[in-house]
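Let's sit down with a protein and look at its sequence and fold side by side. Please make up or recall a protein chain and show it to me in full. Label the sequence line and the structure token line clearly, so we can match residues to local backbone shapes. Go ahead whenever you are ready, and we will take it from there.
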Amino acid sequence: MTPRTVAEILARLDLSPLHTTVPLFLEVGHLRAEIRCNEPLRSELEVYFADVLAAPGTVNTTVEVLDGQQLDPAPRFVDWAREPGKAGRKDAILDLCNARLIHKVRTGVTFLQSADRAIAFGPTAQNPNQVINFVNTQLLNICQRDGWQICHAAAATNGTRTLAIAGLSGGGKSTAVLHMMDRPAVSFVTNDRLLVRAGTPVPEGLGIAKMPRINPGTILHNPRLHPLLSATRRAALDALPSEELWHLEEKYDLPIRRIYGADRIRLSAPLTHIWVLNWARNGDTPTRISPVLLEERPDLLAAIMKSPGPFYQKPDGRFLRDIEQPEPEAYLSALAGVAVSEVTGGIDFDALQHAGAGVFGS
């Protein structure tokens, strides 16, 4: 029988394994989260979230993780339409009364999302990154209901000035931000999701507790990152044609503390600058950074905006539908006061790093 309520879902899950677990507490900006899960996943998450671990106390959200459990019989899910340019099945949903089930088609992990419960179940221990994303999603949801907007951007800051770098997936956002971090005074804010809320004189920016996920090419072209690969793997990747290396689907977590040292993460910072990457990989003209007005460039604004996705429950309790798109006006209001520039020409990360002096100083 297809479940219709949260109570019916909970009746088919066994929460008793969590009764004796020791929770993990996280602090991200002004938000606090609690994670309840068992070993070995608990220890893995404790290491992953080391930079944001906090003492026990009042939290804004609690995430419960039930490894290995499934709903039997499985519900009949409906595919969630993917963003333009993305192929293959990824998420499927089942809407309940004031709740939603989200099923990851490729891994079999399922999530219960409601106003007061956030539960991950299925093969969670084999897919820790999906649990990490689910935890961060709860913080994103809270902020969005409080008026923040999600930007598809990476960011770095020196504490008073913050540069967000936006663009399409695979355009080099993460690589560009890591080049900025070669300056000792610059800290990491976020890799792919930046929350922004209007402020005076500039908006507030808030990153999420997620390590950068980088491609092999990013590692090969930055000597500081070479320890993330064995010498054998680096040599094999270095031998690949550049076109094949660019499109290689192989992601690595980058531990900021290990590579850049302690105190190089600052998740909360004032947002002062945005660069939107609109350059060309095979471009034969020099990289150029030109000021623009987002009001006059809807194409660049579209590269910044990011849909909350199937996990988002609005303040009135309704869940986002896959046909809904972000509202440009809300982003323009949130980003008022930010200096926005377009990056054109050929891809040149060294040129971007040099231009970063205009934001962070030499």
